[in-house]
C-alpha cells in the first residue's frame, strides 16, 4: 500500500520507533514551535462573501460579512437577505470545519512522529541539502556580523587618524622647532585616512553583498522550504488517514469515506511534490548564485585588504575601479562611504 501511495524513488517512508512514553523522551524545545506553526494559518473569515442568488450569479448582489444590519422582529416571511445571511454563516462554518479537520490531522501526525508512533516521508538527498543551507546561512550570518564590526572599527580608526592629523598640522604651525617632524606626521595621517576611506568603501561593498545574499536570497529559499515542510506534514497526515481507513470494513458508508480520503490524499500529494520540486530548483539556483557572488566578493576583500596593509594606494584605487565602487565625498553621512553605480 505504501509503495503504491508514494510512487517516487526519491522519497521513502521512515518508521519512527519508540515506546511513546513522554517521560523517557528527550526534551524537544522545537515541539511547541512546530505545533504553533501548524496552527498559525487559521481561516480568514473576514473575506467571506456570498453572491445573492447562488454562487454563479453576478457581482451586483455581493454582500460582505459584518454588514451590521440587525434582524427584523416583524412577522414578515424570510426574504433574500435572510437567505444570504444563512449562506454566509454556512460558508464560514465550512471554512472553519475544513481548517479544523486539517489542523487536527496535522497535529496528530506531528505528535505521532515526535512520540515514535508514526512514520514520515523523507527525501534524504533534499533534506541533506536543506540542512546544509541552514548551516551555511548561520555561518554567513557570523561573517556578516564580523564584517559589520570591522566597518565600525575602521570608521572609528579613520576618525581618530583624521583628528590626530589635524592636531599634528596645528602643532606644526605653532612649534617652529618641531615644524618638520609634526608636518610629516600630519601628512602620514592624511595618507592613512585616504587609504582607510578606500578600504572602508571596499569592506562596505563586501558587507552589503553578503547581507543581500543572507537576508534576501537565502531567506527566500528558506521560506519555500518552510512551505515544503508544511506540505510534507499534511501529505503524511492524509496518507496515514487513508491507510487507516483502508484497513477498516468495506461497507457502503466506508466506501464513500475512502473515496473522499483518496481524493484529499491525492490533492495533498500533488501539493507536496510540486513544492519539493520548487525547493530543489531554488537550492540549485541559490548554490550557483552564491558561488558567483562570493567569488567576486572574496577577491575584492582580499585585494583591498592586501593593498591597504602594503600601503599600495594605487592598487587600492584600482581594486575599487575593478568592482565599480565609488566613494562618497568626505562630508557625506556616516557610516557608509559606498555608492554603487
UniProtKB/TrEMBL annotation:
**AH domain: residues covered:** 121-321
Pfam families tied to this protein: Arfaptin
User: The organism sits in which domain of life?
Assistant: Eukaryota
Q: Enumerate the CDD domains for this protein.
A: BAR_Arfaptin
Signal peptide residues on this chain, from the entry's feature table = none
Where are the annotated segments for Disordered?
A: 46-83
| Protein name per Swiss-Prot or TrEMBL | Arfaptin-2 isoform X2
Gene transcribed to yield this protein: ARFIP2
